[in-house]
Write a structure and sequence with these properties.
Order of helices and strands: HHEEEHHEHEEHHHHEEEEHEHEHH
Pfam families: Nre_C, Nre_N
Zinc finger (C4-type): 6-20
Structural class: alpha+beta
Number of helices: 13
Radius of gyration: 22 Å
Family: Belongs to the Nre family.
InterPro entries: Nre, Nre_C, Nre_N
Shape: globular
Function: Involved in DNA damage repair.
Strand order of the largest sheet: 1-5-6-4-3-2
Oligomer: single chain
Number of strands: 12
């Protein structure tokens, strides 16, 4: 399956060697005066860049105006595109440079950034920049939009952050591996968003192994690790005994999930409709999957959306105490013209699992799902799992 270059790149891999024409043409650069100093209630949001890794830029995100900014993406779901952009563009990505390895950390700014990352509520923060930031909105297919970038001269927090006891305990456990820490956070009800912040800020893992993790990488790593931890249990559960399907849509992302009685298998089919972000002048279908034993390579076509969807599905199966074969479908319409991050996929897929419909046959579920999409049932011809399922022989086939 040939995947167009823009769909593979999503503005992040520089496959064309030029500035991304999608991200540069959206027109979110605005004229606004920002001084050398910013003081406000910083949400517990930090950003760790990936350029020049292992030397990266990181720092807290500080508001330039009095606007409520939700601390977690779980709380953002359902907000309008305009409100999301306004909310996120009001944050300055204050930054300083550091090596990712724990042995290289010596700056008080590291401690400040980590304290903010551990908080569950906004923290009163003062930042002085080396020069006034130029206002512009940074867009990315994986992370949330953010406002201008400013290099920190000095910063301080003027109140004690509100840090949950469970977070403080797990961050303080310097013998636990990263996967163990993520599992414990999840079990104790800590949001996926906060777990991503903690991992990105170098607060999880064994003491000498701790590292700063670029935000983009920490998102996928958290989704992947948590889904695998859930699947370690799910694969011991009985299969579901009938077909289910669920659907939800948000900001031009139309998402459906079909649960089929079988051992665990998983596929994400994505359709970029003509005129949608990255698609160019043609509709594009991509599909990636895994069998019972999982994947050995990164899902580089569907990328972060694959692991975000997989977590949403694994959460539902764990809730059901069952395992199943899963076909997830995401259709991206032209309404989704600004990338907001893979959290949109995770939360829309989660919503699709909340009110599952029961069906007597797979064909009934497919017919129900087909009517939800602009391109109707054309995705079915692209589904690898559906093709294999239809060709697979069953024990009942041999019973006369």
């Amino acid at each position: 399956m040939t995947v167009p270059r823009c769909v593979r790149c999503k503005g992040s891999k520089n496959l064309c060697g030029e500035n991304c024409r999608y991200l540069s043409n959206i027109g979110l650069i605005q004229d606004r005066e920002i001084g050398n100093e910013v003081h406000g209630m910083s949400p517990p949001a930090v950003f760790v860049g990936r350029h020049n890794y292992p030397k990266v830029n990181l720092g807290p995100m500080v508001p330039i105006e009095d606007k409520e900014v939700y601390p977690d993406t779980e709380l953002m779901y359902g907000e309008s595109l305009e409100d999301l952009i306004a909310m996120r563009s009001s944050l300055v990505r204050s930054g300083f440079s550091s090596n990712v390895s724990v042995g290289s950390w010596s700056s008080r700014l590291i401690d400040l950034t980590q304290e903010i990352a551990m908080s569950t509520s906004p923290v009163d923060t003062e930042v002085e920049f080396r020069k006034p930031p130029r206002f512009e909105v940074k867009l990315d297919a994986y992370t949330q939009p953010s406002g201008p970038y400013g290099e920190i001269r000095k910063a301080m927090i003027t109140e004690n952050p509100s840090i949950p006891r469970d977070v403080d305990y797990i961050v303080g456990d310097r013998d636990a591996k990263t996967t163990t820490a993520l599992e414990e956070l999840y079990k104790r009800g800590i949001s996926v968003s906060q777990s991503i912040r903690l991992l990105s800020s170098g607060l999880l893992g064994q003491e000498k192994e701790r590292k700063l993790v670029p935000t983009r990488w920490s998102i996928t790593a958290t989704d992947s690790n948590l889904s695998e931890l859930l699947l370690d249990r799910i694969k011991y559960y009985q299969q579901i005994n009938q077909v289910y399907a669920g659907y939800s849509e948000y900001l031009g992302n139309r998402c459906a999930i079909i649960f089929i009685p079988a051992n665990w298998q998983f596929e994400l089919v994505e359709c970029y409709m003509k005129g949608s972000l990255w698609s160019g002048g043609q509709a594009t279908y991509i599909s990636e999957m895994e069998d019972y034993n999982g994947r050995t390579k990164y899902a580089d076509k569907t990328a972060g959306a694959y692991y975000a969807t997989k977590l949403a599905v694994a959460e539902k199966l764990e809730q059901m105490n069952r395992q199943a074969k899963i076909i997830a479908v995401r259709e991206i319409g032209d309404e989704y013209f600004i990338p907001l991050g893979v959290w949109v996929v995770r939360e829309t897929m989660r919503d699709a699992t909340k009110n599952l419909q029961k069906f007597d046959t797979l064909q009934q579920a497919l017919n129900w799902t087909k009517n939800k999409f602009m391109f109707s049932g054309r995705w079915m011809d692209k589904s690898q799992l559906l093709e294999k399922h239809r060709k697979q022989r069953r024990l009942t086939d041999y019973i006369e």
